[in-house]
Amino acid sequence: MQQAKVRWPAIAIWLVAWGLLVELDGTFNLANLALLLVLASALAGMFLSAITSLLVSAACVLLFNWFFIEPRFTFDVHLHQDVLLLISMLGVNTVVSYLMSRLRAAAELEAQHAQAVEQMQQWHESLRETTDAPTQAQLLRTFVEQKTKHDASVLLAELPLLIGNANALDQQGLRACMQQFAALGPGSGRHENQTTLFLPIRGQARALGAVAIHRHTSQVMDARTVQQLQQACDFLGLEMERAHSLQLAQLAKQDAQIQSLRNTLLTSISHDYRTPLANLMGAASAIHDQSSRLSSEKIEALASTIISEAQHLHRMTTNTLQLARLDAGPLQIKKDWESLQELLGSVLAKARQRYPTRQIMVDIPDALPLIHCDAILLVQLFDNLLENAVKYSPDSTPIHIQVQHHPTSLDIRVIDGGSGISDAWKTKVFQAFERVHDDAAQADAAPEHALRRGMGVGLAVCQAIAKVHGSKIWVEDHAPQGTALCLSMPVLPQPDMHVQEA
Amino acid sequence: MALKVLLVEDDRDLRLTLRDALSVEGYEVFTSGSVADAQALLRHATTSNQPLDLLILDLGLPDGDGADLLRAVRAQHTLPILIISARHDDGNKVHLLDAGADDYLVKPFSISELLARIRVTLRHRGTVVLAPQTHYQCGPLHIDLAKHTVAKDGNTVHLTPTEFKLLARLVRQTGQVVTHRQLLVDVWGPEFIEHTHYLRLYMGQLRAKLEANPTEPTVLLTEPGVGYRLAEEAP
What we know:
The complex is a heterodimer of chains A (502) and B (235).
Chain A: H1 2-24, H2 30-45, H3 50-68, H4 80-128, H5 133-148, E1 151-156, E2 161-163, H6 168-180, E3 197-202, E4 207-214, H7 223-272, H8 274-290, H9 296-327, E5 336-338, H10 340-354, E6 360-363, E7 371-373, H11 375-391, E8 399-405, E9 409-416, H12 440-445, H13 456-468, E10 472-477, E11 483-490
Parallel strand pairs in A: 6-8
Antiparallel strand pairs in A: 1-2, 1-4, 3-4, 5-7, 8-9, 9-11, 10-11
Helix pairs in contact in A: 1-2, 2-3, 2-4, 3-4, 4-7, 5-7, 7-9, 8-9, 9-13, 10-11, 11-13
Chain B: E1 4-8, H1 12-24, E2 28-32, H2 35-47, E3 54-58, E4 60-61, E5 64-65, H3 66-76, E6 81-85, H4 90-98, E7 103-106, H5 111-123, E8 135-138, E9 141-144, E10 149-152, E11 155-156, H6 161-171, E12 177-179, H7 180-187, H8 196-210, E13 220-223, E14 227-230
Helix pairs in contact in B: 6-8
């Protein structure tokens, strides 16, 4: 089919040339006609194999002799010039045919090469699709077997993994090939008498395994094929090394996260835990050592201190753990549709229990959109904001919680009537282990500052929680006095609220 | 006769503290620090025909997970189970409740909190065999499930059928947390397990009708991330 398609132009060219020869016979002299024949031979040579072209050309020279050279219709040649003409024609035809066939062979080789490259690329891509070494080894084996039509086995040293039918001797060969970082077997210059060809799977600096191609002859394999197979092996080697270094990088990242978590915990313990622990120790040891000399009211007061300090420690622990978790990177957040009113309500209920005398006023509009969030995290955020407001303002001042419904956001403000936060500290308050009035002397100077401790982690957690909810948190001055901590949450498209009455 | 409580807790100090506190309240307390020990005690109680009234179970035990013990006990016994755990993981809480725990308490907790939870849990003891609660009163609110009536300050409150179904489901477990999943399955059906937003909508409507201040409910309480709880009855 392919051959017929390619040959018809040659036949056409010869037919046209002979047509012209017959047509122009007598009009031009013999030498000019002969050139026509040379041209036809050269053109037809492009479409015919070297031998065919040569035979056809020779036949044409003979036919030319028969039809056109005096005496016509014999193979006799009268004039010496005509003999020379015939010989040169035959020579030129031979050269042209030969050149043409070489050109074609080169083009064919090029096409084969391109096909091989494409095959190789496809294989590379399929190899890249998986990071599983056994699957990759199997892919290499299939590739080698398709390419060579022989059984192959693959050894990966690190797993370790051996696929294919390799006997003890073959396994020895595989290991030797790996260690020597070079091919073994026919054509490799090493162990030429073997029938099996071994190729190393090379990485940057060492072999990660080897491939054995089980042949039944010690004949040397086509160099180009061997080169391709070696390329395939090396590609697998580099892929495996790449996967390995990715894995190492991942581990290093995890290590860094664990380190950062540990740092958070350590700093928190050294920074914020000592004071409540000291208070606990003081109150508990007083009851333990002096109970016989203390009034029952005094003992009750000490017990209250123990309870409130324990609660304080519990809150700090929860905050620190949450901060460490959120800091440590991607975490599973369980978001669901929640009602802001409900979440604030449950935070308020706890706060009123904790601070029964404190005035807390709430302003929430009706019919708010639902928010998509992790309920526990949001409750922790609001709880911290409220706790912060209580601790950083005098007991006599009220605390306001305001919710504003904007088209694209819900803004929640927790406002206290405290002394305010200076501009320099407005962003620093969200950094863990920083506190307003960090200067101990200044903190002790004002009595209400005695309460101000341990909230560094609290606001840092708030910011981390806001971040995972795509929300903003910031500090505002509140006129005429006090501070507002503001959270702005995005309003997302609401879920389908159409409910069939059950 | 004193109610029998089995306390499974591996921390010795906490075990002793809780045992003393419960004894003071008049409970007969058996203690155990491991799964194997607890199982032996449960077997003995069954064979000697002196059934336990309550199991208080810690999750992290030296020879196994309390959650597995919970499932094993729930498969054989109907006794109420109260989980005490230091794991502040709410997904886990929800799983435990759905797996048959009656209530949970996160450590650290105060004795008064523990006693309150025990009281509620014991009141629902045997909901599986006995008729469940059908009547509820808290402040101005009267609910009679049998008569299908809800009244606030003596005035009838009209509820839609779904609102009533939701309220009734909570009344049956007054004082105990009912998970989102349990509510959605029982009120709307198993195919609505993911539709938490229905709950937000209907709880909002119920609060608007029944609470004095819907933002700060006193009856229909929220357990963020877990479910809802109807406040204990109060005259």
